[in-house]
Amino acid sequence: MDNIIVLIAIGFLVGTLGTLIGAGGGFILVPFMLLAFPAFSPDVVTAISIAVVAANATSGSTAYMRAKRVDYKAGIIFAICTIPGSILGVITTKYIPRGVFDLLFGVILIALAVFLFFRGKKKAVSKGAVAQPSWTHQKLVDKWGEEYDYSYNLKLGMLISVLVGYFSPLLGIGGGIIHVPAMIEWLNFPVHLATATSHFILAIMATVSVIVHALSGTYNDPHVLKMTLSLIVGVIGGAQLGAYLSRRIQGKFIVKALAISLAIVGIRILTMGMSG
Hints:
Elements: H1 4-20, H2 26-36, H3 42-66, H4 72-92, H5 98-124, E1 136-141, E2 147-152, H6 154-171, H7 176-185, H8 191-215, H9 222-246, H10 251-275
Antiparallel strand pairs: 1-2
């Protein structure tokens, strides 16, 4: 299962799906690695996954930036807010009781998936929302001339980003799978801008997590390093395809795909917690 060609192909699939919904792809990679490599510790699994997520997010972000769908103001501020939590999340990976955490987080993800699946469609087709006076207003025009006029609560977005930064490296799934629905449902971002901006944030946050893992020596094992690099080769190409497809798939379908992905991850985590 650790054949280089197979790993590149898996990376390509992870990159395509992860970029399409702005979630980084770790929600696919982590379950695969847990099943295929049962001897790997959670530390190694999350380290490999977060490195692949970082490569995916960076590659996908370049495509989204060319499409002019990244809200740089929100992206930079939210990314900065994720950094302290990201560092702390990696450090505490070895000390948190995984069974208890998996149970609680699995339930949260499943609840969020149900909420998004039934409520997300309405938000997906909306280009804006009734703004409060203190909200940040933004207007963007993408590469194809489509205009997005929307407002969001900057302080709430910063708080969400701090929490996303902390929880993401604990599971190695990146933060997009939480950040995207939060940006759509609670911050009123248009779907396509939410996926693009989330990827931009994720590229920064995941890179910080990779640096912390590297400093702690997680990638010193040659076998781990070979697997990581093989997956990254595949994910870079897949991320470009995912960004390309995002232009041709309606927002409501992206939201539904994200909701289903959330449910899959939640059930997987919940099952792990119950069996732990």
